[in-house]
Design brief:
heterodimer, A: 313 residues, mainly alpha, Tetracycline Repressor, domain 2, flat, B: 54 residues, 0% strand, rod-shaped
């Protein structure tokens, strides 16, 4: 048997490596899930034992990864078309779609049960709902049906801090809903900025992103509207129990920068955008990553300062 | 040529099995830690046995 034929057998039998299965969990998305869930857990007024806290974050991450695997199983056809997703394990042929489905379902059940055992039923219920929302509501239903896909579907990515909070407190409260709302409102401008400079990818895959269905002008207007609403929410959160002087200062600076970026995007036309290869849109997208990281970092810092009599109001 | 030629497929399979083994070992350690925390916290109570109830 030659090496060439062995390689062919490898891809057909799905003889995947450990890294291929790990890639199914969408590690980059998982980092956001881990970070925001950790902040939710730390910001909660009830302390948890470090081992329980570690287990909670781990099972939330596994649950998030499971929904990523199920999303890749469902979206394998469009992942093959899009440049950005072509090298994922299923389109690359290293893991079969059936295997990804079994892997995702098993991990989802495992993560929910283990989170219930390690923490409480509220956190586990929220994790189960998040997986259901991401896979069924977003991936199977909204993504290919409406240009509002990421507006509503963004809720799935917004749940982790709420789950982290629930893992510590066993309940849902105004503060955890505000953290949810922060990610929920941040998601549309973040993804629409990406869609502005990746439009052909979504168009080829037949995904009805706002840029494809309503054009770039409308998308630019939408980015500005959502950014204004997000800024009001983000700064307003600074006056609640999870906020404080540090958070407020960070929020004011970041939201001014974000608003300025959204205004620049709104004022531009396609000729100007094409001329500099979407430099403004790409800068706004990069800023959006720092935006979320720094907001949640500030919430965590406020919580960390409380024992020293400094955090919060 | 040996029948047991070492191919990339075998290496990949070994790495996958090793990775899974390590994950399972880490899970056992985590479960042990969780159990210890749960049974040593103040609010942990054992269900009374039938003999004790009598």
């Amino acid at each position: 048997m030659s090496d060439a034929s062995l390689n062919t057998v490898t891809s057909q039998t799905g003889e995947a490596g450990f890294g291929d299965y790990f890639a199914l969990l969408k590690p980059r998305v998982m980092t956001l899930v881990v970070f925001t869930a950790l902040v939710g857990l730390l910001a909660a007024p009830v302390g948890v034992h470090p081992v329980v806290g570690f287990a909670a974050i781990l099972f939330i991450a596994v649950g998030g990864g499971a929904s990523g695997a199920l999303n890749m199983w469902w979206d394998a056809d469009i992942d093959r078309v899009m440049k950005r997703t072509r090298s994922r394990p299923i389109p690359a042929g290293t893991i079969s779609a059936d295997e990804a489905f079994a892997f995702g379902i098993a991990l989802a059940g495992f993560a929910v049960v283990m989170l219930a055992l390690a923490t409480n039923l509220v956190a586990a219920g929220l994790l189960a709902f998040t997986i259901f929302f991401y896979v069924v509501i977003y991936s199977m239903w909204l993504k290919r049906w409406t240009p509002q896909n990421i507006v509503i579907g963004g809720a799935a990515g917004a749940f982790p801090p709420m789950i982290g909070w629930a893992a510590a407190t066993g309940s849902v409260s105004v503060e955890s809903v505000l953290m949810f709302a922060l990610i929920f409102m941040w998601t549309p401008p973040h993804f629409w900025a990406l869609a502005l400079f990746m439009r052909s990818d979504y168009e080829n895959a037949g995904v009805p992103m706002l840029t494809v269905t309503h054009g770039r002008r409308v998308t630019r207007v939408h980015i500005l509207i959502y950014t204004i609403l997000l800024a009001a929410l983000a700064v307003g959160t600074g006056f609640t129990a999870v906020g404080g002087p540090v958070y407020l200062a960070v929020a004011v600076v970041l939201n001014l920068m974000f608003l300025l970026g959204a205004l620049r995007i709104w004022r531009r036309d396609e000729v100007a955008a094409e001329a500099d290869a979407y430099a403004v849109e790409k800068r706004f997208f990069r800023l959006s990553l720092y935006y979320l990281f720094l907001h949640f970092g500030a919430i965590a810092l406020e919580a960390a300062l409380v024992p020293y009599g400094l955090g919060g109001w | 040529m040996s029948f047991r030629v070492e191919h990339d497929l075998h290496k990949r399979r070994f790495r996958r099995n090793l990775g899974l083994g390590l994950v399972l070992a880490a899970f056992v350690v985590l479960l042990f830690g969780l159990t210890m925390v749960k049974v040593t916290t103040d609010d942990f109570t054992m269900q009374p046995t039938s003999e004790a109830r009598d």
